[in-house]
Amino acid sequence: MSQKINTNKFLKNVRIGLWRIEVEEGKLPRFYADEVMDELLGITEEITPEERFAFHRRCVHPDDMEMFLEYSDKLTETQTEIVYRYIHPISGEMFVRCAGIRDNSVTSGISIIGTHQDISETIRVEKEKEAERRLAELNNELRQEAERNENYYRDLLDMQSCGVMAYTLPGHRVIHMNAKALQMYGFKSVEEAQQRLGAALRKVYYPQTDTIKHLKKLRNEDDMVDYECVIGKGESNECHALAKTKVVVIPSGERAVITTFLDVSDMITLRKALKQAEEGSRAKSSFLFAMSHDLRTPMNAIIGYTALMEKHWGEKEVTAGYLQKLKEAGNFLMDLIGNILEVARIESGKETLTETAWNLCNLEDTLDLLLDRDIYKKQLTLKKNMELQHPKVYCDVLKIQEITMNLLSNAVKYTPEGGTIHFTIRELPYEREGYALFQTVVEDTGIGISKEYIPHLFEAFSREKSSSESGIIGTGLGLRIVKKFVDLMEGSIVVESEIGEGTRFTVTIPHRIATANEYIFEENAKELPEEIKLNNVRILLAEDNMLNAEIAMTLLADANAYVELAPDGEKALSMLKRATDGYYDLIIMDIQMPHMNGYEATKNIRGLPDGRCRIPIIAMTANAFEEDRKRAIESGMNGYVTKPIKIEELISTIKKILKS
Ligand code: ATP
Ligand code: MG
Questions:
Q1: pTM for the model
Q2: Cβ contact 592:568 at 8 Å
Q3: What is the architecture of the domain spanning 280-347?
């Protein structure tokens, strides 16, 4: 056997060396190698096979030596393979795949042949691939962890009952917006928030004026501002929040604004409701207190003067004075009850406008009629001034009169003797076609109103001083009614006042200008009868209250009418049925009566088979509301008067109905 084994080009290229080891009892092992093998072993000069064996053993990586020896032992029995590290004297550590097999053709000793391949490059590539795979795995794990973290923090933030929002500055790129913040801004998603953030931020209002100043100063990292704001989402939809804003640098290095919002809308609504309830209950108790006084005053007068009249019965002049006082007290009671009803009605939201054509100049007559006596008593000077280009307008006459009367009666009440009251109505320029704008100014030189009280001026039952404190009687309802009526007419009211100097109320209301035709029609409808007698008119009066019945019968009899009384609706119906057609000229019907009320009785009468079904019926009731009047007309009645009976009004209604 030659010392060197021939190699071919191929084996050289794939860096495979061939070897043979021979082991014989009592001799050193011999290691034969081809040219490539020697090169792979790092042997550069001629050496003996025994030296080669020793050389190779020296170069096996010490950490792999144990594994290599095990492998060598196995080789004597079976074909086997190993990959181990070999320390090449020139190029350093290399990976070697070694495969060997026993050559059984040799009889003396043991001979093993095999290959030795340098697989360093393959291992390197494999290792690189493995490293890449690990890296990818690691990245994936990191990404999953980051995702888990993000979800966790998002859930955590979304669970918060306060809103959290972060966006970059400049750029307004939304970094985060939790569920509550989206809800507070009215966004469905973060994407929508991103699209509309600019507009949304412009709809945030800061009630405290210095907040914007502080927010603008938020330049440096870690600066923080606490403030209140209102996030507007639409006309009525707004969210009140307590907010904290801070500027931070986020991991990407950008500057961002982080804001947390605590939604306090419910709290504010509750606080308002509580305040209103407290104020309402305070106003009601002071009202009850005032009422018990105010009701007692006229009642005392009525009882007192009635007793005096009894005592002085027959002394005509003395009792005439008492009668006058009785009348005044009665009128005051009526006003009081009227005002309370009015306010109750207004507060229930049922008030509507009933507009007719009217000449605003008539207001002057109303004033004279109602105010003259009080003005004279207090020696006040009333200066009136009317500058009207379009006095004929469409308006709710009663409400206009009531507004003016309330303001003027206040001016009279709260101006001491010798003072002056200016009353002016003027027309202001107005751009609305067919309409005119009217300004009413009531100005006095009276006691004035304090700055603290002005915000409460239009509250129901509110007075600056009680009747007992000021000695001036009132219920604190007048201005409440005025304000509500002005609002109903889409007008405005302004007050200016100085304690001890006087007060000026300015009311501005638009009215539609009445056409000439409309005006004439309405005026004709209001014509009053010249004669206040009801000669030979036969009236059936249905009234269950005997006191009211007596008053009505006496007043009507005084006007020369014949009156027959029915104590309820049922009786009225049977009396009418029993009488011949045309016997009664008219029925005056109370509404609330036992057995059969006025509406039912009217319905039954309207169902009668002959001419009696057409008998005129006038409702006479203490229900003073517009809808009661409507209901009376709807149930088939022809007219309507309210109690207490004003005889002129009753007679004029009867005459109008009998004429038609
Ligand atoms: P009433 O229900 O009988 O009108 P009132 O006059 O007390 O009672 P308002 O007309 O609502 O009630 O006025 C409320 C309060 O405003 C008054 O009690 C008074 O303190 C103050 N006030 C109103 N007008 C004047 C005025 N011209 N000068 C001074 N104080 C006024
Ligand atoms: Mg008043």
A1: 0.48
A2: no
A3: Orthogonal Bundle (1.10)
